[in-house]
Amino acid sequence: ERGITLKQLRRVKQQIKQRCKAEGWRDWQQKLLAPRDVSLYVVCDKVIRPATEAKQTSFVELVAFGPQPPKWFASHWWGEPVFDFIACLEQHSRDHKYEWKDDETDEWKEVCAYWVCAYGARCPCAAHQARASQHALARALWQPTTSGDWRRSS
Fold first, then answer.
1. Rounded to two decimals, what is the model's pTM?
2. Average pLDDT score over residue span 119-134
């Protein structure tokens, strides 16, 4: 019930575009980052953790209007650029026709949510991250609505 949609991931992408340079985001080597180079490690530090820590909730629970059962589990490396990861999910969605533009309303429609641990797990603190994500991951994988395991290799 805590899968994330492409629309929600695109809002994360907008946050990165708006805040990265303005706030001087840096990587682990203290190198200034361009938005296209921001990894999930940085997004967790700058976006997810500050938004979820006080309420001890998942990021999805903050941005969703209700349950969003994941159809796919997306496994990926946290060090890859978030924009690349989103682009892969967008292509996957197009390939499976999970997203389309409604000709009448000119709005994008979607019928798929993805289990992405950083957004779906309730792990506000790094010390509990592995245990919390494993529990949430197991539930996501065993849901009857989860179609499969989609992995992107680098």
1. 0.77
2. 59
